[in-house]
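Re: export button greyed out
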Amino acid sequence: MTAKPNLSLVTSPRPLPADHVERNAGVPLDLDVVRAIRVNRSAVERRAATIPTRRTVKNEWQAAWLLRAVTLIDLTTLSGDDTPGNVRRLCAKARRPVRDDIIDALGARDLGITVGAVCVYHALVKTAVDALAGSDIPVAAVSTGFPAGLSPVEQRVQEIRASVAAGAREIDIVITRAHVLTGNYAALYDEVRRFREACGDAHMKAILATGELATLGNVARASMVAMQAGADFIKTSTGKEGVNATLPFALVMCRMIREYYERTGWAIGFKPAGGIRSAKNALEYLYVMKEELGDRWLQPDLFRFGASSLLTDIERQLEHFVTGRYAAAHRMPMP
Amino acid sequence: MPSVSKIFRTMEYGPAPESDKEALSWLGKHERVFGHYIDGAWTEPGTTYDVMNPATSKVIARVTDGTAADVDAAVRAAGRALPGWKGLAPHARARHLYALARAVQKHARLLAVLESMDNGKSIRETRDIDVPLVARHFYHHAGWAQLLGAEFAGYEAVGVVGQIIPWNFPLLMLAWKIAPALACGNTVILKPAEFTPLTALCFAELAHEAGIPAGVINIVTGHGDTGAAIVDHPDVDKIAFTGSTEVGRIIRKATAGSGKKLSLELGGKSPFIVYDDADLDSVVEGVVDAIWFNQGQVCCAGSRLLVQEGIAEQLVAKLRARMEKLRVGAPLDKAVDMGAIVAPVQLERIRSLVQQGADEGATMWQPSWAAPQDGCFYPPTLFTNVEPSSTIAQVEIFGPVLVTMTFRTPDESVALANNTPYGLAASVWTENINLALDIAPKIKAGVVWVNSTNLFDAAAGFGGYRESGFGREGGREGMWEYLKRAESRERRVEKKRGTAERRPERMSSAASTLDSPLSTLPSIDRTPKLFIAGKQARPDQGYTRRIHSPTGTLVGEVGEGNRKDIRNAVEAAHAAAGKWARSTGHNRGQILYYIAENLSARAAEFAARIDAMTACGKRASKQEVDASISRLFTYAAWADKYDGLVHSVPIRGVSIAMNEPIGVIGVACPDEFPLLGLVSLLGPTMATGNATIVVPSQPYPLAATDLYSVLETSDVPAGVVNVVTGGRDALSKVLAEHDDVEAVWYFGTRDGVTAVELASASNMKRTWATWRERDWLDAADGEGREFLRAATQVKNVWVPYGE
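Workaround output, generated via the alternate export path:
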């Protein structure tokens, strides 16, 4: 990996390609940048609270935005009782996330709506890859001692390699929270960089476990270090922390993505995960992306939701738009 | 309409209109024509004028242009309602205010939509900010109504209050005016702004339905003439005004000498200060909330962005990127950031000032998108390369226009922030608490927001320093504006002395009565001088004024001060004021004790002097000196005890209400008690950290000139107290006209009060001017919090926290 020089702020980085952005190669750890980060919690919370009150989409726009949200979902199951059976069911839903009659009523057949990816534990990767064969839907594997990330480092690296070998095109790694809490950013950088190397061609999402990082400042610094170390995406949560995705976390991470982009020209993706269950909440995240980073971050190569039940709620809202009647979950094919 | 597939690809925002159906139906119910609401009933519409929706340029209603007769009817109704309303038990008034709060909440959406249609501001703001704050204000003041007796014992309603409000927050300003007035037991005549009368009329209807007694709230619509009729009405006891400094000045002059209580919330050019350790992304959102809130039509808008030089370029780049994302459009659209400017005349003013800014060489920048052409819309605008000398850096634009300047050091940021005649609000952004809490007290403004902006709450006072007006709205500090000391406590002051006719001057040597008349040697002349900057100074013109006893005996001579002496004294006071204000309360208390100690050592001499001047007798003169020593003790005691408050505001954080000294105060002393009157005014001004220019009692100035030698021996820093003897009213007028004097206290004649209040309009200085005699010997009348409040102004520093 060749690191680009860590330039001072570029105010107008080059435009991004329409489909797949160039992968982040990372830069040398720049602690000056990391330590200069300032995050004012009260101000961030005020901004986060007003984004959903400043923006809304209605009618056709809401339907279109919700369809877009569907394409951004990493449809996920991460349970101890996952079996090939329920993972195959999930994959089937991933291919046809919205009932055909609704899609047709929306005039969206030609959009070829599928979810962004299917996300599973390593043991179910092969099942998912097989179930999704013929589609372009990638399989993502959570990895590196998910969710706590405290198993031996060699084992964590090995885990990545095994999942990639099994066909995972995306790897969601977890960081060692202790490195952030103790301010050991060099260790964090080295860890993420090692994971990134192990990923090879698979895209890497770095899960920060924001709910366990104590402060928004820590979230921001961890975001920056993870990006410097080569993460393709930064992701809020495993879904297993006490607090998972929130708009303030999203706002802080998006601002770091913007700063990294302005400094290096590399566009990093964002994935909020955990607790996003309603269509309304999903739209709020889309407003954050559009307002803070721009329309380019509303595409699957730069934005994903980590979610499971969200899809059904979106499907209900879409049916409501089509029929004018409030919809029932049991009428949607379950994932 | 674009297809779902197309929108899926573009991910554009679409229209999201809030329905205007209910608001139109309410207007329709009134056939879109309104009279006034007076004495609990609607009057027949008189001569009407059109009310326009500025977003569509369409007429949405017609309202009556109030005449002097309309105002008179309203004032008489308010006067009739006053005894009953004032006489209600506090709990009963609390119930009424509670009912108003509930009425606002129940009809929140109607009020929000109507406000948006009338004013042009976005439905997001009226729905999420204005109307909830209105309800909050009535709830909060329902609480004060309940607690009035316990918390404001000895005070009562001022009476009939005239209230004139602006168009930028029509309903919110109504609430800020009416809630405290009613809580305190006043009855009101409120005139909404001519552009935006509709929510006030709707509120009148809600208040009527809520059972507010007839005459307690009267709403009279109209233009400036209607407002003038309220201001000039002899039976109005108080005027509360929010609006431009220009009109505030007119009102100050119009009410001069009338005895009307006055509170003014005027213009601003508030600084928004960003230090290089601030969270810049949050700063950008702060700027959005500061200057692109309500289209910048906000008196406390952070319209001057002061940025530390090293980060200016970076911040401006971030701002421009953010401005590209702002959405301007139909105010009832739920997804716009900015609605319409209130009226074509205001739009024209903004355009012309922006043009002037560009003409003067500043760099203007607007986002690439265009604001709607139909209706009164103006895009967010950013100026760089602005210097303090630019017009746009000085005048209040009252539009979405931000000017940017840079500073190098914290001291320079303060200097730039204070480089304005205004002093309404300020915003300070830094992650360094030491810096934030150091800067906040140094800024001349009534509200300072740390790492935030435009936060308002009923529990925290809002109001200005300098030409941004005086008085506070909200919080305990705001209650005083609608209260006066209860009549029962105003004891008739016995005329003890001081009014005896002066007899023709006897031909006698001045010295003969001054020192020892029994001495066989000629006495040494002890003609006192003026006391300026800690030094005895000869009067500029070199004239002296002879002082006689009531029997005509020449008691002594004092310097005849003139305007140049006042000028010098003001400069000396300013040189001393900053350090004195920063000294500790303990330190100031020690000096006041020391003055008392030294006065006590010379008590007999002072008593003899008072007796010689006033012929009040030995007992009375000794009593006055003893009372003066006690009074100094009182303020020595207060010096470290006149604490501010920490308000309970609905954020994670605090609002610190600090009692700050006003600065440099001119003090014209009463005649009744030459020493005690002086000490009663010096004590509170000194204890709270002000520097003064004292004009002693004109007929009895020798107590003051004797006192300066006491001050000299009591470690009073040079310039903290300056004494200029001479013609009281002439000197008071010079003080009142002086643009660098921040307050004038005047205890004299009604003509003198009129002159002082008239002249004070030049820089909108605070005045405490009265012709009412006080019983200075009575601690209830002659000392205490009333004096301390007059010597200070409340600054609310909002400090959100959380890591």
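The domain at 30-331 of chain A is CATH 3.20.20.70 (TIM Barrel). The button fix ships in the next patch.
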